[in-house]
Amino acid sequence: MDNYEKTGYLREPFRLFHLEDCPAGEMNLHYHDFYKIIAFYGGCVTYMIEGKSYVLEPGDIVLVNRYDIHKPTIDTSMPYKRTVLYISGECLESCAQDDYDACYCFSRAAAEKSYVLRIREIFQTEAGLLLRRLETGGQRYGYQREERLLFELFLLALNRFCMEAGGRQELRPAAVYNQKVIDLMTYVQEHLFEEISIDQLAETFYISKYHLMRLFKKETGYTIHRYISEKRMAAAKEKLLCGVPAAKVSEECGFQDYSTFLRAFKSCVHMTPTAFADGRKDRNLGGAYNLP
Fold it and tell me: pTM for the complete prediction?
């Protein structure tokens, strides 16, 4: 885990980028401490999220939960056109009401393991029109307040769209994936804080452990051990930020002992668990990390 690299910060409650470029080089697998929405407008891009790959079409909305491991594969012969919206967990919490779940679109994506919405005529929808206003905002008097209101209205419209779309299959594009690998990832998530071994997984899924390891690496780009470690680390961060003591977090998240947890945490986050919990909100609202 020494090769992890922090690639960016989210210092505001949310941040919007409108980008049109031809990124050079292969992007690594990575994850964020914040949520991400991508509105795709053009280019030739395949987006992998948690073992599922989507060939994007103009009008697609990509929903990336914090700690989802993902990466785009980009054909650099044509511009990659998109708007990217980073959202902190604190920001989403502040938008929630008793009768409104601001995280609905992200929660649904995670529950259904379906991370792309196909909205072909995006700017003919309420969400699309609000997003365009966010993209084209200027520096008029009171714009910061207007921007926050537009953001909340866009998020509401997107959540409403997800809810009203229901099970409409045309809005949920097909993904390329290996079902056994997805089943394995689901199993890991459901038993994350228990002892999990390669032998146990191979026996559970009726496949040789060597074939299982090769298959998982081929389909996802990372090893089973790394995937388990990263998901436990993500859970540990959430617990730390909720005020759970570091020693108890280590125990609850399936690490063998506190010293193992401490080494893993410092290697990944470059600080102790206590320092992370005490100082994160003062430093930033989220970071992004590459997987080697």
Answer: 0.86
